[in-house]
Design a protein that fits this description.
Radius of gyration: 15 Å
Oligomer: single chain
Shape: globular
Helix content: over 70%
Number of helices: 3
Number of domains: 2
Order of helices and strands: HHH
Strand content: under 5%
Length: about 110
């Protein structure tokens, strides 16, 4: 992987948890349950389109689902913002398991 691909991959992986942290809670607060559904479509759809449709993330054979980027990014953001490390570990583990399962399912037919 070249340096340029590495930077693009890092930025692409950063965008997804950043948008989740920035927008998802506010959309749910303002619009209730429908805001959560709108956030899911808008945030996940936009991040997926940038990363896979525009090919911002450069994949070299290994399939890693976007849940890994979300899990790692949100875990890091919560620790940096002052939350306790142990509080986020269960969510981090579930995100890694979900990302692994999603990646495996994709590898079965792609």
């Amino acid at each position: 992987m070249t340096f340029q691909y590495g930077i693009a991959t890092f930025v692409g992986a950063f965008i997804f948890p950043f948008l989740i942290r920035l927008l998802w809670g506010k959309m749910c607060e303002n619009w209730g349950n429908i805001g959560g559904w709108m956030a899911a479509g808008f945030i996940v759809g936009t991040a997926w389109t940038l990363n896979h449709g525009v090919s911002m993330i450069h994949q070299t054979g290994a399939w890693i689902d976007m849940a890994w980027a979300a899990g790692i990014g949100l875990f890091t953001a919560s620790v940096v913002s002052g939350d306790k490390f142990g509080k986020g570990v269960p969510n981090y583990i579930v995100a890694l398991l979900g990302g692994t399962l999603g990646g495996y399912i994709l590898s079965c037919f792609l």
